Amino acid sequence: MRSLGIGLIGTGFMGRAHALAFNNARAVFELPFNLTLAALADADTKRAQRCASAWGFAQAHGDWQQLIDNPHVDLVAITTPNHLHYPMAMAALAAGKAVYCEKPLATSLQQADAMRLAAYEAGVVTRVGYNYQHNPMIAMARQMIDAGELGQIISFQGEFSEDFMADPASPWSWRCEVEHAGGALADLGSHLLAMARYLVGDVSKVCADSQTVHAQRPASPGSTEWRSIAVDDQVHALLRFANGARGTVSSSWLKHGYKNHLSFEISGTHGTLAFDQERLNELRLFRAGEQGFQRLLAGPALPGYAAFSPAAGHQLGYNELKTLEVQELIMALAGQGAAGTDFEAAWEVERLATALRLAAREERWVNVSEI
Amino acid sequence: MRSLGIGLIGTGFMGRAHALAFNNARAVFELPFNLTLAALADADTKRAQRCASAWGFAQAHGDWQQLIDNPHVDLVAITTPNHLHYPMAMAALAAGKAVYCEKPLATSLQQADAMRLAAYEAGVVTRVGYNYQHNPMIAMARQMIDAGELGQIISFQGEFSEDFMADPASPWSWRCEVEHAGGALADLGSHLLAMARYLVGDVSKVCADSQTVHAQRPASPGSTEWRSIAVDDQVHALLRFANGARGTVSSSWLKHGYKNHLSFEISGTHGTLAFDQERLNELRLFRAGEQGFQRLLAGPALPGYAAFSPAAGHQLGYNELKTLEVQELIMALAGQGAAGTDFEAAWEVERLATALRLAAREERWVNVSEI
Amino acid sequence: MRSLGIGLIGTGFMGRAHALAFNNARAVFELPFNLTLAALADADTKRAQRCASAWGFAQAHGDWQQLIDNPHVDLVAITTPNHLHYPMAMAALAAGKAVYCEKPLATSLQQADAMRLAAYEAGVVTRVGYNYQHNPMIAMARQMIDAGELGQIISFQGEFSEDFMADPASPWSWRCEVEHAGGALADLGSHLLAMARYLVGDVSKVCADSQTVHAQRPASPGSTEWRSIAVDDQVHALLRFANGARGTVSSSWLKHGYKNHLSFEISGTHGTLAFDQERLNELRLFRAGEQGFQRLLAGPALPGYAAFSPAAGHQLGYNELKTLEVQELIMALAGQGAAGTDFEAAWEVERLATALRLAAREERWVNVSEI
Amino acid sequence: MRSLGIGLIGTGFMGRAHALAFNNARAVFELPFNLTLAALADADTKRAQRCASAWGFAQAHGDWQQLIDNPHVDLVAITTPNHLHYPMAMAALAAGKAVYCEKPLATSLQQADAMRLAAYEAGVVTRVGYNYQHNPMIAMARQMIDAGELGQIISFQGEFSEDFMADPASPWSWRCEVEHAGGALADLGSHLLAMARYLVGDVSKVCADSQTVHAQRPASPGSTEWRSIAVDDQVHALLRFANGARGTVSSSWLKHGYKNHLSFEISGTHGTLAFDQERLNELRLFRAGEQGFQRLLAGPALPGYAAFSPAAGHQLGYNELKTLEVQELIMALAGQGAAGTDFEAAWEVERLATALRLAAREERWVNVSEI
């Protein structure tokens, strides 16, 4: 069996999530590769070494370029702050290595565009971490839609709201910077746009309204110094899909009570389907002709679930979605399957977000093809 | 105690609902009038007589003008098809009588404008049957908002969806006619717009997208003859409120699984509030600083509920909302209270719906003041 | 059409509920009688007169025996405190009149036994106000069970909990007196036992555990005088049904958060059905072979619902269950239908509650036939 | 740092769950040991080798006694069929090794008793895999109860139902054998009894009713040969706790629609708390004086959650409960903490189950101290 060496850049929460996912994918799935954790990089060399040891990586690097150049590294996983995605991914692609990058792809559409072109020219497998799509319940939703079980799709109504910035005293962070692709739309909304595209297809035209409710925030927790905020706190938008469906999307990081409320309802001529990430093991489904909405609970009829549990109702957690993302990436590297969001698809998400921003700024409908 | 004679026009479902509501209001509340059921009118005189007897009305008329002219009638209640609201209300106002008209106020904005001016000149009490607002839970929501318990309101996201036209074989009806103020926006959406205005206030600017999904329907149940449909099956829109809040509204009569899904979430700087008419005795509330959403259940702390039951959890039904609407109308007639939607406010709802239609037709943001 | 004169004793909350129900039954249903509100009795003659006028009764009596003797009264409705049910019902039966009595039938099993025998000898229609059974959703549940849609019934798990006595400072009331058939089992649990019998059938054997948690309560609101409490605050029991099903019932008036939590799950070899009175317009249903529980929402396919609304999702309220109870009583008086709980069935409920009390006192299984 | 060598016996679903849990515990937590996966045993040597390689164990054994004797093994984890728990655990204890055994502790109370005594004499740390207790939401429930936030606990109502045997054609399996501690009570109910004891405390007296609904099942899937079934399909019971609380427990593997319905409501003098394993990241809580039940969602304020995710709403899955169980076991091995179910506590669960069986067989109340 061929070997596949993983190089991971970044040791924060998302770095550890990747490390767990690679470890667990190896234990849970029959993979077409002999997976090795080849190298871990962090600008703090000591931390790189400590985490490499704890997480099972063979080598540690203080310089990410060294990790990319490491001949044992076949796949470069990038979990650093957003503005580093571009240089790291470009360097990995230049080295002909497969890339697995956290979302957002980049902090500007120009960068995203360059990255997808570089990926195309490198001819390697790329993936971006839109992990919510790897939920077996979402896979099931996609299959039902593709199989026509909901009929023709006529509406998508989605919302991704959280409340971590709801308190006006929640301080400024890099998430509040335009140049780091900040704001509720970029941070949360992009997951929702990716989901809408994944389930319903291309969006052709949009209108949007965005708002900065709290125009100043403390510079740091408890600080009396205030910083101006330029990014949006909430966005509401109208979508027209290429297939004729219509819909709304909303995103807010000010909505009290919600912690991970990536939710949607999809209405078709034969049924309605609803999902809320705060109950990620469930779908609500109404089939035309039935008497009421059904609550479906994840179970081993779904392959992605069966990998983790032989019994329904045991429930998967967020980290297992990441393991599933990794497994699908590895299958793609073996030429077995095309699931997941590659750089091309991730660029489409950024393009759509850009169209929403333009529509909001100019207070008009925007054709996505304008972008 | 002064007497108040009720004259009711129409004997359909809504006519009976009015009859029940007047009867029950009399039994349940201490009213400031001696309420009498003076007269009932229906074009079918026999039916008028039969219903008058069953429902307790003193007289029956086959001609609605006679009912208006009947000296025992002080208040004219109109429950006829939409296109008759205008001539009947105008005649009642001309006769100096108070008017209680079912929604929509009229089938064109011009008529609605004439009606609110006539009401103003007549100087009488008018009300339009936006019954969902009379739910004690909605009264509670309004009070919480007015008292600042949610802080500054920053978003309203509302939806009114049902599925009674979801089957493409659901036949054409008067609800499908533009000239009867048909379509999902007019039939369902107007309730939602009235609710948004009632709870959050004036809307200043809108953008909208409407769609006729099924452009033809059978002329009658089971018919092989098809009629073209010009009204909307679904509408999605963006709202900007005068107070700075933003939001979305959606309305559809194609959404499988929903029967009376007038729902909304209101987000403020101190909390979030949610409601669904399919569970009309409940509110979901999150207060900043608390750990989770609370499910509030209607109880006798709310006066409108206490009138019907001394114990929480017993639940009110739709017809009791109508009784509460009638009670509030009667209090207004006695000069005690201004709750409810008068012709002026109902015209504002029609104006807002007209702004949505213009925005959808011209694919642009529309200032409501343009209308 | 024959006339039917109603005589109502009692003007409290339940008296008014009866008055509303008779009025509304007349307006909503095509009844086989010409229904007249003949007489209203209250020990306070002034109050009797005032209420008779407000509620539409032709006559008022200060003495309930006069009401029973009133030749215009065909049906005597009893809504007085529990200890008066026995003398009033016995007098009405002696006068050969039909009787509609609030629950519980009596305050002792001996009285209940005498009443059912007197009813049997009088040969008149009797009914006891177990109103929750008249919910169209419960009628639907019964029909599904009778039609075998759940297969063989194997378990019933029921609970009726409220929290109106949860505060130890909630004062003593007549509900705390043994001689008024007080306690959580009698006050709440009897509704649950009646429901279990209605849906699953006779109970043959029981074991039970009852407890008085707060053995003293203030003599009146805010009082510093304490009264001893002898009745149960909570009861838990095991049931064996004659048809082989097993189950549990629990009743508490100390359970914080519940307002009207009459709930049950019925499990059969082909499916599971669940209900909660706090959402009286819904049923949860799982059919063998399906993927998840369905939430069924009351709609006009159910005759009891259609009488009040032509559209699903509008919801009935508690008072409409009372109207349905009255309608079924009137149909029974016309010899059209046997729905509802007559004195015989109500005695069976009291007998079952007595068996539970004996089982709890003696800490053993009790055959209901012992009682 | 001291090293800790893990020896795992069994390679089925639960074996893999242990392997994942040890791996993840090492990556997620700062452990007080240098954890090594020393050896894996399976009667099928080839399988042992294959799994050892996939899961990262240093050695593979075809004979479990060899694993116990392996000097690199400090802790023996047992995930084999129930009847092997006894000989393996006794051998491990005899070798002076710590033992981590899946539930149930044994297949008879005599064995369980011998095991707890052997553990006592060996003086080593023991744990039994009642994994549901390690949910951070359950830890929170326990803390709230211990802190008196619910006041005095007055009732526990619990149910553990699934539907994997609901189809009468579901075949016989070892779960149907008395000598393997089979039946709904042993298989599911023991989790519930452990939970009741963990949250409310010792149970002093019980009454129970158990039933075999399907007395024969196919010998294997699709077989026409039938085998008699002696174990219970459903059990209902009454509990009295030593602290005065009362309650019910029910367990069924015939209840259609439920997949992992380990649920309970705990009622105290200051509030009510509810949980359902099918939504393991949630608690429903009513605090006296509040208006409604709150839905609490797991978040990083809970240490067991924070280990896996820095953000609320991300949700843990079943496998992470196992990782938490392993972490608590390892802390106990380091003398830091006593959380979890040791052999003594697991014997108490078996004793309680035995009391329920006796009560059911003899149809009487049983003092647990009789057993």
* Backbone shape of chain A: globular
Low-confidence stretches of chain A: none
Q: Going across the major beta sheet of chain A, what is the strand order?
A: 16-15-14-13-7-12-11-8-17
Count of discrete alpha- or pi-helical segments spanning 4 or more residues of chain A? 10
Per CATH, the architecture of the largest domain in chain A is: 2-Layer Sandwich
Question: How many angstroms separate the termini of chain A?
Answer: 44 Å
Return the structural class of chain A: alpha/beta
Domain count of chain A: 2
Radius of gyration of chain A: 21 Å
- How large is the share of residues in beta strands of chain A? 25-35%
Q: Which CATH first-tier class of the largest domain in chain A would you pick?
A: Alpha Beta
How much helix, percentage-wise, in residues of chain A?
25-40%
CATH superfamily caption of the largest domain in chain A: Dihydrodipicolinate Reductase, domain 2
Largest sheet of chain A: 9 strands, mixed
Tell me how many strands of chain A there are.
Answer: 17
CATH topology of the largest domain in chain A, what is it called? Dihydrodipicolinate Reductase, domain 2
Q: Helix-strand pattern of chain A, N to C?
A: EHEHEHEHEHEHEHEEEEEEEEEHHHE
**What's the quaternary structure here?**
homotetramer
Biggest chain pair contact, residues each?
A-B, 44 and 44 residues
What number is the mean pLDDT of chain A? 96
